[in-house]
Specification:
Elements (H helix, E strand, L loop, with lengths): L1 H6 L5 E4 L11 E3 L5 E3 L7 E2 L2 H7 L5 E3 L4 E5 L2 E5 L3 H8 L6 H11 L9 H26 L9 H4 L16 E5 L3 H9 L4 E4 L16 E3 L3 H4 L9 E11 L9 E3 L9 E4 L1 H4 L6 E9 L6 E2 L3 H16 L3 E3 L11 H21 L1
Helix pairs in contact: 4-5
EC number: 5.4.99.9
GO molecular function: flavin adenine dinucleotide binding; UDP-galactopyranose mutase activity
Keywords: FAD, Flavoprotein, Isomerase
Length: 354
């Protein structure tokens, strides 16, 4: 938003962030061993949008990277999302065609009359056994709720395949910024009309600044001082470690669905960055009820509360609410970029043309 307002609309922009760095949750930096790590957990860029990819390409070169994830189940590490290889490894099968795998999954599926929850989505597709093996424990850890209590959108994000494609995403563009996300955002903000104020809460300075319009990207309930109550979010805690070996795990991310394991996944960054080094760096990810807000919790009562806040937001003159927290939606990175570009066009281009 800042870059478009400065470059295309010719406006002077002040970017305020309460953290001590730019790039938000996508912030990455070199650790003591020189490995580029993601402070707030792995961010994997993927999109089918040519517009989003073209826009970001103005600010970075790319490194091709196809994300692969394994799940640790029953002493095995198997491809996730579930595919034909997963089924063969788990059940000792030799399914050799898509049709055989489809027939096998159809035999395990337990159709439900109505698909309302995350549990309904998975059980209707792959049955109770695979649901409990891969989804139930992971979801309970991640969200602090059983899948039967969560909107169907949560597990609908993870596909089930009958081929042997072991990529986590199937998007047209699957790349990582060649020099990292922070470098990309620094270049985006490197504009004579943009000033940056870090380590500052906007509420501490907003009364001292003359401005025409605000773009708010924090939690929408916080903007209104929680006057209708708090919107629930899940948070994350991270444990970063440097390991004195060349490789820790075979892929970038290994999931741990078992509820007995306190973390949900381990990330090894060299897979993401392509760096070569005698040591490696990893991050353990622990879901938490407390801490910075990361994930809006998709339940009907939360959406109802957000709709009330959204009415207040729409009534605010000269304030635009953009991003995952401000619009209480579980966006991927490319969706946030798309939302920001669309919001800019509506607010600054189309209104000017009209």
């Amino acid at each position: 938003m800042a870059e478009r307002m400065a470059e295309e609309a010719g406006l002077n922009v002040l970017v305020i962030d309460r953290r001590e760095h730019v790039a938000g949750n996508a912030f990455d930096h070199e650790d003591a061993s020189g490995i580029l790590i993601h402070r707030y957990g792995p961010h994997i860029f993927h999109t089918n949008s040519e517009d989003v990819f073209a826009y970001l390409s103005r600010f970075t070169d790319w490194r091709p990277y196809e994300h692969r994830v394994l799940a640790q189940v029953e002493e095995k590490q198997v491809p996730m999302p579930i595919n034909r290889t997963t089924l063969n490894m788990i059940f000792g099968k030799s399914l050799s065609t898509d049709e055989e795998a489809e027939e096998f999954l159809a035999g395990m599926a337990e159709p439900r009359d109505e698909i309302r929850t995350s549990e309904d989505v998975v059980v209707s597709k792959v049955g109770q056994h695979l649901y409990e093996m891969f989804f139930r424990g992971y979801t309970r850890k991640q969200w602090g709720l059983d899948p039967s209590e969560l909107d169907r959108s949560v597990t609908a994000r993870v596909p089930t395949r009958v081929d042997t494609d072991d990529r986590y995403f199937g998007d047209k563009f699957q790349q990582m910024p060649a020099n990292g996300y922070t470098a990309m955002f620094e270049k985006m903000l490197d504009h004579p009309r943009i000033c940056i104020l870090l380590d500052t809460d906007y509420k501490d300075v907003v009364g001292k600044i003359d401005y025409d319009r605000m773009v708010f990207t924090g939690p929408v309930d916080e903007y209104f001082d929680f006057r209708l109550g708090k919107l629930p979010y899940r948070s994350l805690q991270f444990r970063h470690e440097m390991v004195d070996q060349e490789q820790f795990q075979p892929v970038g991310v290994v999931n741990y669905p078992n509820e007995a394991v306190p973390y949900t996944r381990i990330t090894e960054y060299k897979h993401l960055t392509g760096q070569v080094a005698p040591t490696t760096s990893i991050t353990y990810e622990y879901p938490s009820a407390e801490g910075d807000p990361y994930y809006p919790i998709p339940r009907p009562e939360n959406q109802e509360l957000f709709r009330e806040y959204d009415k207040l937001a729409n009534a605010e003159e000269n304030v635009l609410f953009v991003g995952r927290l401000a619009t209480y939606r579980y966006y991927n990175m490319d969706q946030v970029v798309g939302q920001a570009l669309a919001t800019f066009r509506r607010a600054f281009v189309e209104t000017k043309e009209a």
